[in-house]
Amino acid sequence: MSAAGEVLVPAERVVRWTENFVARHGATSFVVADGVLHGTAADGSDFVARLPFDLAHAGPADPAALARACVTPPAWGLLLVRKGGFAVARLSGDRLVGSKTGQRHVQGRTKAGGQSQQRFARRRDNQARAAYDAAADHAARVLGETPLLLVTGGDREAVDAVVADRRLAAVSVVGPWLAVPDPRRAVLDQAVRDAQAVRVVVRNA
Q: In what residue span(s) does the Actinobacteria/chloroflexi VLRF1 release factor domain sit (predicted)?
């Protein structure tokens, strides 16, 4: 087997994606185990397909059934945080009902040594903390205090710092984790689409 690779497949393309997999790798058998659709092809290649929002697939072992099971929650949120900025959104189904993006300057690392490096590190940590606090302020305002599912991405340390804010205690973080560059509006828009996609991990024989 070659190394596994993950792709995000919108629900409306799941059946076509599977047909293309079969065309490349041969007859494929499907099973559902632990809420995930598994496909194994004649040439030994395989894939696993997971529903978004950590939902478990309880239907038939069939790509079309998996696609039908892609249900977007009536209320959910998205939080992207990196040292260069943040983006937060609240959604109703696939409709954006509130959002905010922002940028904060956090200095990069330095090669200086000694006390200069220590002062730089403290300043950089303070800048990062201020950036995370600002992101938490906006996240609390946009997401509100009612329970909802939250998809996150960016820098894990930064996201953890923001989600730890007590005002976000009602959110439940779910997959997928989204690897994104510094959040801007275009990045947020793409992340909204990616959060609703089926996660497929493929291993080629």
A: 75-200
Which candidate, 61, 30, 25, places its Cα nearest to that of 44? 25
Smallest Cα–Cα separation from 52: which of 204, 190, 183, 200?
200
**What are the structural domain ranges in the chain?**
5-72+198-203, 76-195
Distance between CA atoms of residues 79 and 191, nearest Å: 9
Bridge pairing between strands 46-50 and 28-33:
unpaired
**DSSP codes joined into one string, 116-151:** HHHHHHHHHHHHHHHHHHHHHHHHHHHH-SS-EEEE
Q: How far apart are CA 182 and CA 175, in angstroms?
A: 19
Q: Kindly report the pTM of this predicted structure.
A: 0.83
CATH number given to 76-195? 3.30.420.60
